[in-house]
Amino acid sequence: MINTGTVDVVQDSKVLTFAGVDLTSVISGNRFKVNGDTIEYAIVSVTVISSTSATATIVGKYEGPNQTAASFQIFTDFYNYNLKVINVNTVDNPVMIDHNFKIIADELDALNAANTKYQITTKIF
Questions:
Q1: Averaged pLDDT score across all residues of the chain
Q2: Hey, which residues does 18 pair with through a beta bridge?
Q3: 6-75 topology per CATH
Q4: Where are the chain's structural domains?
Q5: 31 with 42: CB under 8 angstroms?
Q6: How far apart are CA 6 and CA 91, in angstroms?
Q7: How far is CA 99 from CA 34, 39, 102, 121, 125, in A?
Q8: pTM, rounded to two decimals
Q9: Residue 7 has pLDDT above 80, yes or no
Q10: Are 64 and 9 in contact (CB under 8 A)?
Q11: Whether residue 85 has pLDDT greater than 80
């Protein structure tokens, strides 16, 4: 999750303007939300201007009020990864946990996050 820096948002615009944050790791499909808002938006693309500024385009138009230097979150929507819900009383928990971590490890591999994948998989498998 990315939650450092600030964002300028304009109602009915698809473009977000970020300051004080490096967005080089953000990919299409990541989710964006202004802190305090209830609506999440999918990110379509990111244009990195410098190591501390960028713009991003979202699906649809921003529905909230205009804000300058707002706090925000960018995160991955794991519901699209077919992760299994783990219930304390389920007998198949080890199988479900293994399933989930394999999906996460594959996603990290696809993002070229080999070091993170290694750290996670060596602690779990």
A1: 83
A2: 7, 54
A3: Elongation Factor Tu (Ef-tu); domain 3 (2.40.30)
A4: 6-75, 81-124
A5: yes
A6: 45
A7: 32, 30, 5, 12, 11
A8: 0.64
A9: yes
A10: yes
A11: no
